[in-house]
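To illustrate this point, what follows is a protein record of this kind.

___
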Amino acid sequence: MLAWFLTLFQIGRDMITAAVSGFTELIHISYVGIAFVFPDWVNVPQMNFFAAGLLPILFVVPLFDILTYFGILPFIIRWVGKLLTFLTRAPKFESFFAIEMMFLGNTEALAVSKLQLMRMSKERVLTIGLMSMSCVTAALIAVYVKMMPAEYVVTAIPLNVINALLVSSILHPVKVAPEEDTIAALSEGGEREPFFSYLAESILGAGRLVLIICANIIAIVALLKCVNVLLGLLHASLSLELILGVVLFPFAWLLGLAPAEAFQIAQYMGTKLITNEFVVMLQIQEVVPTWPAHMQAVMTVFITSFANLGTVGIILGCFKGLVDPECNMIVARNVVYMMLSGLLVSLLSAAICGLFVW
């Protein structure tokens, strides 16, 4: 129903257009700061990926952190979470967390939920781990819409939230007693950090994020090339993309793609699962506009999430510092379920969006 509303109704399309315009404006504002330091990178016909895609994070992340500091973002999360609980009948905190991870990303959403996680049963903690595979952070949406069709990027976000609740409840059903269905707090509370100290830490964190993403892309692309060279020694046409394309071809074909298109999309899907969404976006951003609308929608929605092997390690690291060893062990033992959850949510979101875009 959500995909139907966002893709077929004028008001839904207008909402997407407004959201895209807002994130695009944030990017353009960030270019002012980038141009002040690197004028030769901005005032050019074609900006490089580092300037156009990564450096805006230095502005967008602190902006969202400021909204969090003054309680604006938590207010939005709280009330949208209540609405989602009403619509899905999911436990309150699970719905609450789904909205948190839509705005904050998995690591930040887990961090601000530490008190709640410490009070939950280990079975519910695992549910949160499964859901954490399917998020994005709002701070990166502005980057995604510069690389992929913006209307499908924005559509993917709420679809992933709802489908994460659905898939996690299927893979790991947990009965929550009414007395357990409570929300402790957004954070542990305590004395609030001074604003400028908080802002400085946010800016440094954004800088670390830019470097981490950049380092990951450089290393992963080079490692993939190395693997393909080694596979090429066995057979000239053999590559990691080919292997993944064969494995994921049935899933891509079921999304309503022609066989040739399905095999091409399946290779990108596999690459995304073992690397990250930025690697695939960099590979396809120039050719996506030439694809049919249905193919664009399916591919864009599928890759708009953090569902990949690297995210598993990040989530495990977060839980290790947030919950007791027993809960952490439960999550660590279900890594396969976590990857399966991320894959199924991405496929389900892509399938739902694809139903309404042809």
In short: The chain has 20 helices and no strands. The chain has a mean pLDDT of 82. The radius of gyration is 20 Å.
